[in-house]
Amino acid sequence: MANVLVFAETRGGELRKVALEAVTAARKLAELSGGGSVHAVLAGAAGVSGKAGALAEHGADSVLVLEDAGFTQYNPEALAATLAQKLGGGTYAYALFSATAQGRDLSPRVAAKLGTGLIADATGFVLDGSTIVAQHPINNGKVIATLASGAAPSIISVRPAAFQPTVDAKPLVTESITSATDPGASRVKVTELRTGGSGKLDLGDAPVIVAGGRGLKAPENFKLCDDLADAFGNAAVGATRAVTDEGWRPHSDQIGQTGRNVSPNLYIAVGISGAIQHLAGMRTARTIVAINKDKDAPIFKIADYGIVGDVFEVMPALTAAVKAAKAQG
Amino acid sequence: MKIAVCIKRVPVMEVKFVIAADGSRVEDAGLKYDVNDFDLWAVEAALQLKEKAGAGEVTVISLGPDAAQEQIRKTLAMGADRGVLLKSDAPTHDGLAVARALAAELKDGGYDLILFGRISIDTMNQMTGPMVAELLDLPCVTNVFKLEIGGGKGTAERALDGAIEVVEFPTPALLTIDDGLNKERLPSLKGIMAAKKKPLDVKPAQLGAVNVAVRKYELPPERAAGRILGDSAAAVPELVRLLQTEAKVL
Predict the structure, then answer these.
(1) Residue A219 class from Cβ within 10 Å (0-12 exposed, 13-18 middle, 19+ buried)?
(2) CATH number of domain containing B34
(3) What is the value of ipTM here, to two decimals?
(4) Which of A193, A307, A316 is nearest residue B165 as measured by Cβ atoms?
């Protein structure tokens, strides 16, 4: 029976979906150990405690709330010090983070402070006694390594979308905690956070991704992807590196080895040939659809469904059909 | 400006990896190696900062086998001034062990900046940089894709998944470099010749205790072969039907 400390990630004062995934994964870890407690750390400016309910609903026995103006923006130095202090006390056998940009920035700092093991970006885990044994994709996702860490506490970060948020409601218990260091004294200061702002879904959160490649021929033709995404209503639009390098789409939309790694339920590749670097970022999607005029394009080797055809003809038809299907159901 | 860049020798990924029958290792036969992409962008960033400052030194440090001298030489050919190989024949997946060995080498170097690539595409650990920063008590900014340094401080933009953070930090600092900051230069012939004469120290890596061990390697499950539904918009109704009834995603 071992307790798990889980870091609940926020952005702009709102809980991210990955926070609920992390709590779900932490609950699983606690149950594997024979039924320990899950304590979630929630940090932010005044009012962030209002977000604690969703964490309890997904299995947190207690929410440790760090409410301080110094945590309005991501404050890794003070967070790492605070988490290391909590984890150093002997209460927790495991700490769990989301393997997001933030989690992969924060968890190594905590592991180094504690001199303990960190398994990053796990897609699944079990316990072997008290040793955590986890799967982690390596070599661009072409090999899976099974890693073991028996250190106490052991730290693990879990890949976004590898664990689906699961309701396992606990009574809401919150505890106010304070920062281990003066958050205002942190040397690195976030002066601005820019989010998409358009209200559109982030690639990491969207159940459906429509991604465009060079086959779209010109930046204005991304409207075909935007239209299909709108027809789905729960979709985000991504792009290949070739496209973001051309400046057709913002760099943050890039999916692949050097960009985002995504695992949506449905991935629609439009005019994408399927270079290995692109496949590295999306091959874990549940269902893959490819539309490309080149029948030999590598994307067809991993696509569940393919249409070898002209994207300019197929896309408007698909958008209309999806709209019709959504209208029916 | 004195800058250290930590780089890694990684396999070229355009191959089909072969796992030993007992799962104990990824077979080395047939693999080619290069400098990790992100590390090349870190080297390029260092060279540009040195050029802009008009003076300085760029030291490239790598932990790896003897053969990693080849990758260090490549960065010397790009224009880095000297190299250090922390020799370790037994590859470890433990990021903290690697970070400790690198930190021991970096500690007394007097560097204004220490740069890493955001992630190495072999272990995909993405942890060594921030761990080294912690061990050396340096300000740390990860995922940097825009950077300005001057007057003992810097500003950077870092790529979060789907958002951008603008940060300010004092130097010395440790940064990890993301895609988008620059494109690395190709070594010139003159650079390649000059690199042969540049200093490259080889010393044993002090890895210390290892907490994370590899139990086995395996290939991910193959995706089942897909179906081509047609060659025109006429295939769209069938696609929509399959998305609804088979894949159940619509």
Answers:
(1) middle
(2) 3.40.50.620
(3) 0.94
(4) A193
Determine the Cα angle at A53 with ends A47 and A59, to 5°. 140
With tokens 């600092």, the residue in question is: B173
| Strand-by-strand arrangement of the A131-138 sheet | A124-128, A131-138, A143-149, B212-218
Distance CA A256, CA A289 (A): 16
Residue B135 lies in a domain: yes
The residue with tokens 């935007």 is A226
Q: Tens of pLDDT along chain B (250 residues)?
A: 999 999 999 999 989 999 999 999 999 999 999 999 999 999 999 999 999 999 999 999 999 999 999 999 999 999 999 999 999 998 889 999 999 999 999 999 999 999 999 999 999 999 999 999 999 999 999 999 999 999 999 999 998 887 899 999 999 999 999 988 999 999 999 999 999 999 999 999 999 889 999 999 999 988 877 899 999 999 999 999 999 998 888 8
Q: Which CATH superfamily is domain A208-328 in?
A: TPP-binding domain (3.40.50.1220)
3-state helix, strand, coil in chain A (%, to 5): 35, 30, 35
Residue A198 has pLDDT above 70, yes or no: no
> Has residue B237 been placed in a domain?
no
Q: Are B115 and B175 in contact (CB under 8 A)?
A: yes
Q: Look at residue B213 and tell me if it is in a domain.
A: no
- Quick check: do A3-185 and A208-328 share a fold? yes
Name the amino acid, one letter, at A257. Q
For residue B80, CA distances in Å to A220, B9, B59, B205 come to: 41, 16, 6, 21
The answer as to CATH 3.40.50.620 being correct for domain A3-185 is yes
Helix (H, G, I), strand (E, B) or coil at A296: coil
Is the pLDDT at A316 greater than 90? The verdict is yes
Closest Cα to residue A236, out of A244, A248, A224, A226?
A226
B58 within 8 A of B50, measured Cβ to Cβ? yes
User: Is the pLDDT score of A197 beyond 60?
Assistant: no
Residue of chain B with shortest Cα separation from A131: B212
Tens digit of pLDDT for each residue in A117-149? 999 999 999 999 999 999 999 998 899 999 999
Per-residue pLDDT, A199:
46
A150 CB within 8 Å of a chain B CB:
yes
Candidate from A150, A193, A257 with C-beta closest to B163: A193
Distance between CA atoms of A207 and B243, rounded to whole angstroms? Answer: 14
A196 contact B CB<8A: yes
Give the tens place of pLDDT for each residue, A277-291: 999 999 989 999 999
Tokens at residue A321, please? 């059909």
* pTM of the predicted model as reported, rounded to 2 decimal places: 0.91
Number of structural domains chain B divides into: 1
Residues of A in contact with B17 (CB under 8 A): 139, 142-143
- B-proximal residues of A, 57-86, CB under 8 Å: 73-74, 76-77, 80
Which residues constitute the domain of residue B114?
Answer: 2-204
Residue type (1 letter), B162: G
- Chain length of chain A: 329
Look at residue B249 and tell me if it is in a domain.
no
A329 CB neighbour count, 10 Å cutoff:
7
